[in-house]
Design brief:
Length: about 325
């Protein structure tokens, strides 16, 4: 066990790695976990869904806002959401972590604990990775998933007449970000939604089994991510603010506290990792209808008109 004062350099790479993997229970999808040059996974479907994402300190998280445990949860959650968005279930994660050599080893262990908590929440495990010295915290996660013998749900399958539906919270992370940035110590649930998002695990499979024609997770913003579906499918999408009023109402108090427009968070706020999909008929239980698919061109409207605000996150802004 690392003491609070012991750094990564003092503990040593292999001692840290041994502590990170010690006592962890791997899920049934893992044939061989950490300890060799590579892990081995079962692929009963014959196909594996793969996605990779990165988090960089001060760009994607702040350690004065988030605990290392929160950061670990977020790193796994945002990658698992991409797997869910294909209609699959995340089974395993490979993690690379870079940090300054004077980082307390206890923080790295707390980060790993957060990752394992999130992975276990969906029945997955962490099967390997790497640990390196870096000028700041950088976390790279590769997620692997199982389709369960189904075809993937792509962005390109939406058709005119489809229903647009969402499952999970919308705008919560953006609200939390603004609360943290303005130093407002209220609305704890929204603040927590920013540091550790809560994807609706299992609903990607539910959507696929219910005939979803296209799907994505809300990582960049509802308008931005639906824009990817509209463009890939060559269709228009019209959202209804009446159907999204409940989401706006959840954020109203926080928006008033920071002097913001709650609609900007609902429509342009990212990092909630809710799932949004199109269906040829009524959406499955737990999903909420929020719009309709129309004939092209590929664009997203709000109540029949172009939205004049920010549609979402841009990686290089």
């Amino acid at each position: 066990m690392a003491s609070d004062a012991e750094t990564l350099a003092q503990m040593g790479e292999f001692a840290v790695i041994r502590r990170l993997v010690s006592g962890r229970r791997q899920p049934g999808a893992v044939a061989l976990g950490p300890g060799d040059d590579a892990a081995v996974l079962f692929a009963p479907d014959g196909k594996t869904v793969v996605s990779t994402d990165m988090l960089v300190a001060e760009r994607h998280f702040r350690l004065d806002w988030s605990t290392p445990h929160d950061v670990g949860r977020k790193a796994i959650a945002q990658n698992a959401a991409d797997i869910e968005a294909m209609g699959a279930r995340a089974t395993a994660f490979v993690v690379a972590f870079g940090a300054p050599s004077d980082t307390p080893a206890a923080q790295a262990l707390q980060l790993a604990d957060g990752m394992w908590r999130e992975a276990e929440a969906m029945g997955g495990g962490i099967v390997g990775g790497d640990l390196v010295s870096a000028p700041q915290w950088v976390i790279s996660v590769t997620a692997l998933g199982d389709l369960g013998s189904r075809d993937p749900v792509r962005r390109s399958g939406a058709r005119p007449g489809d229903v647009v539906a969402v499952v999970g919270g919308i705008g919560r992370s953006a609200a939390g970000f603004n609360l943290w940035r303005n130093g407002i110590q209220r609305f704890d649930e929204l603040r927590q939604c920013h540091v550790a998002p809560q994807p609706p695990y299992g609903q990607g499979r539910v959507a696929a089994e219910s005939g979803a024609t296209a799907m994505t997770d809300v990582s960049d913003g509802l308008l931005a991510d639906l824009g990817h579906i509209a463009e890939a499918s060559g269709v228009g999408i019209d959202l209804s603010t009446a159907a999204l009023t409940g989401d706006r109402d959840v954020l109203a108090g926080a928006a008033e506290a920071v002097g913001a427009d709650a609609w900007a968070w609902v429509l342009g706020g990212g990092e909630d990792h809710a799932l949004v999909a199109t269906f040829p008929g009524p959406p499955p239980s737990g999903w909420r209808e929020i719009g309709r698919v129309q004939n092209g061109p590929g664009r997203v409207l709000v109540d029949g008109a172009a939205w004049q605000g920010n549609p979402g996150w841009q990686s290089f802004d």
